[in-house]
Amino acid sequence: MNACRKAKWLILFCLCLAILAGCAGFKYTDKVDPVRLDQKVQKRSAKVYAQADEWRNSGVIVQKDASYQISARGRWHAGILCGWTSPSGVETHGSSCPPVRNVVKKWSAGALIGKIGENGEPFGIGYEYVFTPKEEGVLYLRINDCFGCTVDNDGFVDVALVRTDSGMAGNEGQARVSPTGQTRDDAGLRPVQGQKWAVIVGISNYRDSRIEGLRYAAADAQAFHDWLISQKGGRYAPSRVRILLDSDATSRNIRNALFNWLGQALEEDTVMIYFAGHGSPQSPDQPQNLFLLPYDCQYDDVATTGFPMWDIETALKRFIKAKKVVVIADACHSGGIGRSFDIARRAARGVQVNPISSGIQTLSKVGEGVAVISASDDRQYSQEGRQWGGGHGVFTHFLLTGLNGGADYNRDSHITLGELIPYLSEQVRRETGNAQSPTVSGKFDPALTIGH
Predict the structure, then answer these.
(1) Apex CA 113: angle with CA 412 and CA 152, to 5°?
(2) Half-sphere exposure of 349 (CA within 13 A, CB side)
(3) Where are the beta strands (DSSP E) in 398-446?
(4) Can you list the domains of the chain with their CATH numbers?
(5) What's CA 219's distance to the chain center, in Å?
(6) pLDDT digits (tens, 9 = 90+) for 196-218
(7) What is the dihedral of CA 144, 147, 150, 151, to 10 degrees?
(8) Sign for the pseudo-dihedral over CA of 290, 296, 299, 302
(9) pTM of the complete model
């Protein structure tokens, strides 16, 4: 208790120091004369400091309807309560570092943001961003933190900006392809957009009738699959989307899809993995052993017939080469599945926590570029019903609603992770009265487009 009290006082003391220091970071003193990128000036770089309490002149005048790519590398943090982060800023999400009074409300603290012109509307950038300005003006950059709150920030990011439209075809090779700073020109490569791959799993009915079925898990998976291959949606090639519903979603088929079929994806490709069904610990006494339940899972032998969470981690580490991976899971529909859980309930042993959501979230620790979105937290159950889209889980209903345009906050006809995540969180929590709260983890680019 004393340790907790001392820690609280330490935090308050540090905050007081920030207030006494004027709650303002330093100002940039170097004079920057912005230029337009053309054949003579092909690239500009800028260093953006987390402690700066003003916008950084990038040195570039962006032109209307031209195409640009911004790449940012480095580490910084947005205050003593927030951890160190990349320019994506995503890993700062959490109760200890709430996005209060951020300049761009829908992006987390610590993200790189920009604006065009002194009076322009701020927008999120992350660690890589491709855009076509609708107006001409000087591009300004800064950390996503409230004005007057940067005194306790630290670190910086290096930002490179190149023009990539046809008028600058010779410069396209300067766009960075990895956080190491290597350029496409260095690597001897031309820009490659990459292909999109997906594995979709949905299980409503289990072969073992003792495992209680779900009403809409398979329907959720089918609807998400249909959106992925739609030309008005994800625009995935049907040949690169594998869907496993009910009796097709056996442990063997899921393992083959993750280990072998997704092994075809290259580093520059994007991989989407979606699961709707039951997830459970092995038993109340072994909550650390987590499993997704395939169609052929046995009620009294989850340890042998379930699909281990560590097998998904192995697939991400050893078999899937893609550097952009999105995992979406709606797997917490009960406090645990299997004979041991039912015995515990009959014995009046409280079984209130199913740590499957936390287990899913740990997949994000595999490496940068992996985004993990789970339908609820450990103490909540995922809800489903006819009131959501005529028969869906509330999570997938708003996932599809967001992807179909509801999450397109800036109305550019592209849905990014940075737009979808706050939309999902708000809508699901509002719809369920905070009884279900989607969780997000990972070090990924919020500007990654996942829908149109």
Answers:
(1) 155
(2) 12
(3) 415-416, 439-441
(4) 22-187 (2.60.120.430), 196-451 (3.40.50.1460)
(5) 24
(6) 999 999 999 999 988 888 999 99
(7) 180
(8) negative
(9) 0.60
